[in-house]
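An instance noted here:
***
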Amino acid sequence: MAFTVRLLLLISSLFLVLESLFVQTNSGKVDVGASLSATAGNSTSWLSPSGDFAFGFRQLENSDLFLLSLWYAKIPDRTIVWYANNGDSPAAVAKGSLLNLTADSGLVLTSPRGVQLWKSESISGVVAFGVLNDTGNFVLEGDNSESLWETFNYPTHTILPGQDIEKGGKLRSQRSETNFSKGRFELRMQDDGNLVLVTINLPTEFVNAPYYASDTTGDSNSSTAGTKLEFNSSGYMYVLRENGEKLTIKEAETVSARSFYLRATLNFDGVFAQYSHPRDSSGNWSVVWSVPDNICNMEVASGLGVCGYNSICTLQGQRPTCACPKGYSLLDPNDPYGNCKPDFIQGCEEDKLSPTNDIYEVQMLNNTDWPLSDFMQLNPSTPESCNQSCFEDCLCAVAIYRVETCWKKKLPLSNGRVDSGLNSQAFIKVRKGNLTLPVPQPPNPDDKKRKNQTTLIRVGSALLGTSIFANVMLSAIVCMGFFFIYRKKHVRPNQNVLDSNLRSFSYEELKEATNGFNEELGKGAFGVVYKGILQIGSGVPVAVKKLDFVVQDSEKEFKTELKIIGQTHHKNLVRLVGYCDEGQERLLVYEFLSNGTLANFLFADTKPSWKQRIDIAYGVAKGLLYLHEECSTQIIHCDIKPQNILLDDYYNARIADFGLAKLLMMNQSQTQTAIRGTNGYVAPEWFRNLPITTKVDVYSFGVVLLEVICCRRSVDMENVSEERAILTDWVYDRYLEGVWDAIVDNEMEALHEKTKLERFVMVALWCIQEDPTLRPTMRKVVHMLEGVVEVHVPPCPSPYSSEG
């Protein structure tokens, strides 16, 4: 036993000696023609002369993907300091991808099939060799040892001693601790010489006001403007001014670069910090200094701040944590720094529908505020009057009381924080119990007439189907009943008060609200949608759908929408506010959703994030589940497509346009009707004279789900090759080949969640089966998307066509 131990110690010592010899003889030089392969386990890498740094492929945590990166090689966590990226996405690749060092293009990264994924840009000259320096800089050099390209000139989230950031340069944060996609925070050395920390309104490049600034700007008559951010080899960081002065970023005790590894990183939560780690590999990274001192207290003039909307930021140590207040929950449970949504529906219309005035309870928080969400200030005030004023105001979500002043705030709330210096009280309105469903309005003189009409309809529905003779007789009775009720009315013929909680508008009211139907939002088969402002409080934006009576069946469309939408209530459906039924004018008034259609969102120049798209897919599925199974009257939408899915302020999916819906009574399972819907989304049974069931919506949802996954239109004959033109066929072929990176166009964020990506694609393929009986119900679709139900391997969606 002792001999075995001594032998193992001898072997271990031998390996250490060999490693030492290797490090001593390694020059860090890489010849043209050299290559690295992304392989599982310990992938090969190129080392610096000291062995401190490595350049190569790192397998991402809980993923089959590899990141081309540069890291500390001698410490246990092998901290990444640089990674290759394509704009917003890191160059994360599949197993078997290759990195080649070439003379003409420098570093070239290709997929296992040889498709170029990334290369070192802006190289002018012929590359003679590459070299990884002990500073952590990988340099491509020419014949005269001049630098043609280097990682120090293309920083990601970290800078190292000896590295500078010139004017126009920047660091950007990661999306999260493990997600290397572009995050919301940037450190910028501006052209005016100011070093700033800012937030970005993703997915755009819009920059909010700085939440930290070095204040090193200068005018034409001054030499005090900053020229660059320097991190010298001793570990000292400062902004160098034009006059040679050095403005230290943060006064702190100097740490020896000889004894410690040093780095400065812009963290995913927006804190810029310098770290140290003992070179002998013991211990962990320690914070030397960080800015800002308290990021929770840093206000952003617009945008959502450090934490998401409706969230509360608390400083723990030197880093922020985020949490939702009571009655709110995370939009994405996997993103604790993301947006919080209310778990109830709050609004003026919803409050009116409540059976009691006692619908809210208060959550009181001390020293908590959302300082940029005020819409009204009351002074003087007391805590009691502040709380009461918010309760009585349907626009108010939170009231903050401080020093005899009350600030009333509405959603969404931004820049939330806890600060012991506020000396304030926050009163948050939260609905009691389950009081979000619409209830009947107070009785009016026409209630009895409406009840008589409704009774006739229900009696007729219950007795239909008993016999042909009975049906004929019943129809006659029902018609006579309607005739007498109609004759007894003392209101104009078209003022038909429906059994729903909708407001009746006059045509002049809506004409005034839309400024003479001036601003067009969109156009459909049955009319045009205009933007309007209802003069309620400070003005409520709405979308007014003006139906075109030149089109056949448009009045039937109007009646269908009133009956169906007026009785539906779900967070993933567009809410109908009211209607106009005056003379020949038929108009519908919807809530206005600021972020437009899913089509505009998906197919814009800037690709939405994977997380946003997944949330949207969940929302559409849950909205359809409600229509099919959970509302009082089963509804088939018949025209599910991205143009009929709208996005609210939080980018929640809201299904719109029930004009093509086919109403099914609870005791019916199918119906025959004329072909409806839109090319590319229409289920095959429409063309085969087969019964139409809720499975037509399932088919359309499957097509939309593939569009959401791929960010591509279902049919595109102009912008892609013939092979890729029909999205459903192309995705199924890629699925059979197991080529997931092609399906999402090498999107790292999606490939990082490969299990979820596979599940979503398989669910979509089940939904688009030509045989309706093979398609799942929307309830099962939701369960499969959530991972509650196992998703089996789908068959070919089009077996009929393949047999032909």
Remarks:
- The chain has a mean pLDDT of 80.
- The first helix runs from residue 2 to 25.
